[in-house]
Description:
With 69 residues, the chain is mainly alpha-helical. The chain has five helices and no strands. The protein has helices at residues 3-10, 13-20, 24-33, 38-47, 59-64.
Amino acid sequence: MTIEEVEKYFGNLNQACKALGLASQNMTSWKSRGYIPFKQQFRLAHITEGELMPDDSDPYFDMRKGIKK
Length: 69
């Protein structure tokens, strides 16, 4: 899932952070990195009852292993 998808679903990133119970700085950090951590993607999928679905793989793990998509 992309940050844009999350923002569109919740209306803004602050609402998404509230749903996750996180400080808004987390979403700001994710936005600057360009991805949402895999664990949080699964939490968002659960919260949205499958409206938002996690990526097929963890982008951070792939980046560390040198896997390019």
